[in-house]
Amino acid sequence: MKRILLLSMCIVPFVLMGCASLDKEQCMQGDWYHIGHQDGSSGKQTSRINNHNSACEEYGIAVNQIEYMQGWKHGIRNYCTAASGFSLGRRGTEYNRVCPAELEIDFVAGYREGLETLLDETQWEYDTNERELNRYSRQLSRATSESDRAELKKEVKEHDNEHDRLEKRIHQLMKRLSMARQRELYLR
What we know:
Keywords: Coiled coil, Signal. The chain is elongated, with a radius of gyration of 24 Å. The chain contains eight helices and no strands. 80% of the residues lie in helices and 0% in strands.
């Protein structure tokens, strides 16, 4: 119980800090071009400015939307590349369609390739886990001692849980891959 209390005391401040997009100092400095550039380079949608407005409103500071959008437009060009798309797809992260039309085709092509790579690796992991699950299941059916059976039941359960997790992940990746392919066809 003490560990849980201590852990929650450590985590809660970080969670609360995460609610505001900017702190008082950032709002007061007001480098809106730089903030917009950072958001664009990170693939954040332009609606992120609403979070900044809310954060800075607490300190009586208004966001310069023109500077922010100029920075965002330059930053998004750093994000919307084939390499960045590949990286996003490789992590299995959902694409939020933030790229401008003239940059989106390369980004989506990279995103699709990243998803295909991740799907192949996840499928390999699934197949490997399935072989292990079958091996442990066979051993369990032949085990005679209770201690062996208990250990093998534990292994079967762990591999079965992993089987379910990987199966869901593959389904999710296939759905994202299908959407990426459709988007790529649409853009061509």
